[in-house]
Input
Amino acid sequence: MNFIVWSLIVLLVGAVWSLLSAGWPRWSLAGGLTCIAFAGLAATSAGLIRLIGGGQAAHVFAWLLPLGTVKLAIDGLSACFLVAIGISSVSAAVYSWGYWQHEMQPRAVCTFSALLCVMVAAMVLVVCAADVVLFLASWELMSLAAFFLIGLHDRDPAARRGAWMYLIATHLGTALFVVPVLAFASSHSGSTDFESLRAGLGSIGASTAALLLVLGLIGFGTKAGFMPMHVWLPIAHPVAPTPVSALLSGVVVKTGIYGLLRLLTWLPTLPVGCAVAMLIVGAVSGVLGVLYALAQHDIKRLLAYHTVENIGIIGLGIGMGMLGQSTHQTGLAALGYAGALLHVLNHALFKGLLFLSGGAVIHSTGTGAIDRLGGLARQTPRNAALFLVGAVAICGLPPLNGFVSEWLIYGSLFGGALQIPGLRAATPVLGLVSLALMGGLALACFSKVFAVVFLGEPRDAALQTHGTPGSMLAGMALLALLCVAIGVLPGVFVPLLAEGVGVLTRQSSDEFQSAIRQVWAPATALTWMALVLASFVALLAIVRRQVLGHAPRAARVPTWGCGYPYPSPRMQYSASSFAWSLISSFRSLLWPRKEALAPIGPFPQAGHLETHTADLAEEGLFAPLFAGIARLFAMARTLTWTGRPTIAPPIRPPPAREAAPLRVVLARLLAAIRRGSIQVYLTFMVLTLIILFLIEGFSSGRVSLPANQGSAGASPSRAGAPPARVEGTGP
Amino acid sequence: MSFWRTVLAIPEFALVLALPPLLSSIIARTKAWFGGRTGPPWLQPYFDLHKLIRKGAVYSRTTTWLFRAGPIVNLAALLTTATLVPVLSQHSLISFAGDIILIAYLLALGRMFTVLAALDTGSSFEGMGAAREVTFGTMSEPALFLCLAVIAIATRSLRLSEMLGPQLFAAWHAVTPALLLVVGALLVVLLTETCRIPVDDPATHLELTMIHEVMVLDHSGPDFAFITYAAALKLTLLGSILLHAALPMPDRLAAVGPLLRLIELAGLALLIGVIESMTARLRLNHVPRLLAGATVLSGLATVLILTRGHG
Output
């Protein structure tokens, strides 16, 4: 607890110092960043102590706060998020020193440093607050600090737009959904203390609980960036200064996940439908997030869409945790929540790394447009290696950390397919398929971005490239090291999650371990496999070196152009062409637009090809919605049906809808159904079958669950297994 | 029992690693027979590997260390996979609950490094091949995981050697239709992942139409030996999974099991040779339909197995 108080004090000192020394930007920045680094270390230590030692610590300050008290508490759940916040802040602080060296403008630098102190402090407060009023106050402080940081380069219209989008989205979510949920909870339990909320909400009915969860999912989900509330995220995150983008995507969005999980700890056991809804939201966010990411041409925007994907993966984990709790399968709940919590940390690590590394690319070349870059691996080899670590980790590939958390979530999904009887198991199977699809698409996406930015030849000869400062590399190296450490030694890190999961499932640490072991292998198995993989790599590298040592060294030649002798860098495959085959395969989900001007005739003029993929949720859902609301207000103001005042100039009409609106989607869907391809008809057969089985199941009432079967036996056998299977498995 | 299994596992693993070029040879001989030719000698793939190992390597000026790392990581990932997949006997070298996920992701790791090595050359042909590889790899993933889910549900196990063991033999009696669909879908996944006709043509030298072969155009010498061997090993491993799923063995055949598996693997190679000789390669924009079809079939299998209690 002391660590938290110290980190808050240090951050306050940092903020004040940065403002006071505004005349000396170097001192201002150095002081602020040092304070952030030490505060981050303190927060990480506080979290780790709680995760290793267990228990809960609370501290009430005798300060006056209207309506509530200043009460800070760290339990396992807060501790998991504290570790993520602490590590990300340390690396962002180290990175920022090198980042600002080339543009030491006093105003921007000291504002940045002071606001960053405030934002980190607010995040620490959000996850440690144990009182509704304190939570909301720090939540607001965090949003405001983030707003000013996004709009730091306020001469840039894109930065202003991103900052305002962020502010509006986060306030709509907070005011319309989060505040009502928390207000209901505290009025129902008669206190604003988190402890009493848990006791007070334990008695509410299932439908009220489900309603609270849905409201919380929308409210906190706006902060976290679940589809379709994600629209602000790919606009706001890319325009912020790079260290801020890394913190925003790495940890600020995670406070939304924290809020959702905190709400879950208060609610009584939820109906299965809530878990199914959570799983579907997670699957949709994940698949669509990565598909949109694949279609992007800007490196930071692409990474921002990947945040939506990873939030979807976390959502899948949370959904499986809820499903496990609703169906009393402790193993599934433990695996699901553990996977989600570990992915929160992992995503903070590798997304932080990728944003910082992508920012270093922009720093050294001056552009983030992927298709203008190329060949950076030879000019900035260290940055390329760090980006590669992040890319392999985010694709969930062994032996790095992304694989560990996805492996846990897969365990929960597979376990759900096995242990949940009847067609209800279809939801985990659906989650399984979506997670597999996300894995493949993420691989495609990061092959694309790594290869186009770092490999091949530079596409734009006009771009000047300069190296990456050492402190930027150091900040990234910290994150990369942790990515490898968690991936290779999951046996050390996964048991630490027991405290965090225990807050949600009320399991002790031993129960957590044994619940996992019922379904899935302990994570130490992955350490052995990482060793096997590493030794095979080493062996093959030695073999290659040995056999090549004997052969004569051949000259370095140009790439084989299949007989064409004059290839130019512009002929290389670009990001758009690499992604196009996947994008066009999923065109019914994405509606990509392609504008082509083919060179024709005997003397062709310059040709032109442009692809663009608009966000369907932004242009098809929110733009018409807000245009309608604007029109309603206009009608109220002018007291006319048209909303047009007679004298004043007319209100700007709503922007032309370029993306497909809903009715075009429906019309094209109908056309697609009758396209006459065999797999569409097959899909309909399967869907019809599912519906028939569902009708049959519900009409005969057999979908209802046998209650509380999970605690019955250690083996993952199904209590209500049909007799045919029992005969089948006999010797 | 377990002592003997440990002792025998090492020679078995060695045999599994020695086998892949022979399967390539069987496919080549079958195709030659259909074409009315004699075909290369049976041991030609081994000679080719030996020749490549002794050669020097030529590198493009554009490439970086990733180009050299690609074949190594790809082969290492496949060798690691080989320790997890039961090939000849019912047991793999290493086995734990959840190894199926590791297998799928190790294959993906190999794919990522092959793709990156291809893109490292800056050649637009290799970019084309890499784009197709990730597209079709992504689309075969849902079908693969659905198949794994069906087998897991049928055998109530999450460990690959149990999922493909005697329990599956018993499950075939109970849920034959679902498992038949799974075998069909797995065959499509196998042909896609190993870049065979009707998805990719390993024999063509027209760069515009190839996937795997065009990605490795610039590799030579020992690197190319690693790639050739890795491709054959991938075929052996995925083929074994397919064979174990299609023809599971009861316990009483365990003694002659490895011999039967050897014959079956030869039969699978023969089957692939026949498919390659009798069918044409699909147009590239029709491949997604094939994979979507496989996904739907495995989805149907999932529905069948999840609803069997309602009958």
Summary: Strands of chain A lie at 57-65, 68-74, 592-597, 608-613.
